[in-house]
Amino acid sequence: MNLELFAPVTGQPEALGQRAVVLRGFALPFMDELLPAIQDVEQASPFRHMITPGGFTMSVALTNCGTFGWTTDRRGYRYATIDPTTGRPWPAMPAVFARMAREAAAAAGFDNFEPDACLVNRYLPGARLSLHQDKNERDYDAPIVSVSLGMSAVFLFGGHHRADKPVKVVLQHGDITVWGGEDRLRYHGVLPLKDLPHPLLGNQRINFTFRKAG
Ligand code: MD3
Ligand code: FE
C-alpha cells in the first residue's frame, strides 16, 4: 500500500468557514496525470501577464482551459471563449481536471459540480494576489474549487468586507480548497511568494481554480 498517497486523502476536511474547506493532499493521487495535462494547456495557450483595468501588470501569470477563460485588460475583467493572445478558443479542459474538481466538490458537500472554466495561475517568487472577490461568474450557487501545486503560499481568507481582517492559511502542494454558499463571495488573496523551491516544480507555484462561469 502506498501510504504517502493514502494518508492525506483520508484526513478530515479542514473547515475555514461554514461552506469553505481545505482538503489536504487531495490532488496528490492525480499528480502523474495532472502535470502533463498542465503542459498541454500551456502549450496551446501560454502563461502571460495581463493588465488590470487600473493599468497595472499582474505579478501572477495566467492561462485558462475549458469553454470560458477569465481575462483582464484596460476595459475590465470578464470571461471570454477566445484567448486574446492566440485568437483561438481556450484549450479543452483535460478530463483529469474535471474528474478531480468534481470529486473534490463532492467531498466538500457540493454534488454534480460541472465547471466550464479553469483559470490557471502561475506564481514565481515575489508574485502576489491582492485581496479581491470573485464576482465575474454568472451563478454564485456553484462552488469554486482551487488546487495548489509546487511552492507553498500563504493564502488570505477574509470576510465580506475588504476591511475584515483575513485569516492566514498555508496552502501546500496537493491541497484543494472548496468555497461555496455563504463563503463564495469572501475577500481573499495570496501573500508574496517566498523563494523556497519545490522538489517537483522548482521555484514556482501553480494554482488552478475551477468555476462555473457561463
Ligand atoms: C475564496 N486565486 O484566481 S485560489 C483567483 O491561489 C484566486 O491563485 C488564488 O483567488 C490563488 O481568483 C486563490 C482560492 C480561492 C479561489 C476563489 C475563492 C479562494 C476563494 C472564492 C471565494 C472565496
Ligand atoms: Fe480569487
From TrEMBL:
Keywords assigned by UniProt, alphabetized: Dioxygenase, DNA damage, DNA repair, Iron, Metal-binding, Methyltransferase, Oxidoreductase, Transferase
GO BP annotation list: DNA repair; methylation; oxidative RNA demethylation
Q: Which cofactor does it need?
A: Fe(2+)
Q: Which PANTHER family match?
A: ALKYLATED DNA REPAIR PROTEIN ALKB-RELATED, NUCLEIC ACID DIOXYGENASE ALKBH1
Q: Where does the chain bind Fe cation? A: 132, 134, 188
Q: Name one GO cellular component term.
A: cytoplasm
> What does the sequence similarity comment in the record state about its family?
Belongs to the alkB family.
One Pfam family of this chain = 2OG-FeII_Oxy_2
EC nos: 1.14.11.33
InterPro entries from the entry? Answer: Alkb, AlkB-like, AlkB-like_sf, Oxoglu/Fe-dep_dioxygenase_dom
User: What species was this sequence derived from?
Assistant: Pollutimonas nitritireducens
This molecule's function is given as:
Dioxygenase that repairs alkylated DNA and RNA containing 3-methylcytosine or 1-methyladenine by oxidative demethylation. Has highest activity towards 3-methylcytosine. Has lower activity towards alkylated DNA containing ethenoadenine, and no detectable activity towards 1-methylguanine or 3-methylthymine. Accepts double-stranded and single-stranded substrates. Requires molecular oxygen, alpha-ketoglutarate and iron. Provides extensive resistance to alkylating agents such as MMS and DMS (SN2 agents), but not to MMNG and MNU (SN1 agents).
Q: What is this protein called?
A: Alpha-ketoglutarate-dependent dioxygenase AlkB
Any one GO molecular function term: oxidative RNA demethylase activity
The note on cofactor binding and number reads: Binds 1 Fe(2+) ion per subunit.
Which parts form a coiled-coil structure per UniProt? none
The record ties this protein, via NCBIfam families, to:
PRK15401.1
Xref: SUPFAM superfamilies: Clavaminate synthase-like (SSF51197)
Q: Where is the Fe2OG dioxygenase domain?
A: 114-214
Q: What is catalyzed by this enzyme?
A: a methylated nucleobase within DNA + 2-oxoglutarate + O2 = a nucleobase within DNA + formaldehyde + succinate + CO2
